[in-house]
TrEMBL record:
It catalyses: L-methionyl-[protein] + [thioredoxin]-disulfide + H2O = L-methionyl-(S)-S-oxide-[protein] + [thioredoxin]-dithiol; [thioredoxin]-disulfide + L-methionine + H2O = L-methionine (S)-S-oxide + [thioredoxin]-dithiol. Its EC number is 1.8.4.11. Residues 1-15 form the signal peptide. The active site is at C46. NCBIfam families: msrA. Has an important function as a repair enzyme for proteins that have been inactivated by oxidation. Catalyzes the reversible oxidation-reduction of methionine sulfoxide in proteins to methionine. It comes from Puia dinghuensis. InterPro entries: Met_Sox_Rdtase_MsrA_dom (IPR002569), Met_Sox_Rdtase_MsrA_sf (IPR036509). The keyword Oxidoreductase applies. Keywords: Oxidoreductase, Signal. Residues 40-190 form the Peptide methionine sulphoxide reductase MsrA domain. One of its GO terms (molecular function) is peptide-methionine (S)-S-oxide reductase activity. This is Peptide methionine sulfoxide reductase MsrA. It is an enzyme of class 1 (oxidoreductase).
Length: 214
């Protein structure tokens, strides 16, 4: 369960910050990989949110919630939430490079969170919610570092970017109930008043910058 879910749910309801209209939540397109499919790995807080961010982009077939960046070879949600495993909530993004580039995925990653927050995103706090851009080769590392340099030079944020840039080692898919969680649990208070509004703000702020699925 997300941190502060129950203690803050009444606040969210009173603040009326949720979405009252039906929302078309993006889901995976299929279980079958496309030809020449590639995979990218990103952590940016709650993986429920990260999943729909990437699944809303044209060229992404699926985003799988899981754990990466730690030392435990058998992580599960309960132990990851303690912070003891070193893992962060991460998504594996399965995409078609002929339809969307790795640099576009990196740009969407930084645009859909606050990369200056250390060990947290929004109401979620702890090392499991830290932001990490994992790279699998030197070219991906250069793309990530170039985007950080661009955002820093543009003074996009008033504080220093603290997102980790780390080599990819291993990814462990999360429990089945976490996959497509927002689509399957639209009435969850956290989903209704945090995840969906955050995603809608991301889409609205980036009209024309990314190709969103209809």
């Amino acid at each position: 369960m997300k941190k502060l879910l129950f203690t803050l749910s009444s606040f969210f309801l009173l603040a009326a910050c949720g979405n009252s209209q039906p929302v078309n939540i993006p889901v995976k397109e299929s279980d079958k990989p496309s030809p020449n499919e590639a995979v990218a790995y990103f952590a940016e807080g709650c993986f429920w949110h990260t999943e729909i961010v990437f699944q809303s982009l044209v060229g992404v077939r699926d985003a799988v919630s899981g754990y990466a960046g730690g030392t435990d070879k058998h992580p599960d949600y309960e132990t990851v939430c303690t912070g003891a495993t070193g893992h962060a909530e991460t998504v594996a993004v399965y995409y078609d490079p002929s339809k969307i580039s790795y640099s576009t995925l990196v740009a969407a990653f930084f645009a859909s969170m606050d990369p200056t927050e250390l060990n947290r995103q929004g109401p979620d706090e702890g090392t499991q919610y830290r932001s990490i851009a994992f790279y699998r080769n030197e070219q991906e590392k250069k793309i990530i570092e170039a985007e950080i340099a661009r955002l820093t030079a543009a003074k996009t944020y008033p504080r220093k970017i603290v997102t980790e840039v780390a080599p990819f080692a291993a990814f462990y898919p999360a429990e089945a109930y976490h996959q497509e969680y927002i689509k399957n649990h639209p009435g969850n208070p956290y989903v209704e008043h945090v995840s969906i509004p955050d995603w809608l703000r991301f889409k609205e702020a980036n009209k024309g910058k990314f190709n969103f699925k209809s």
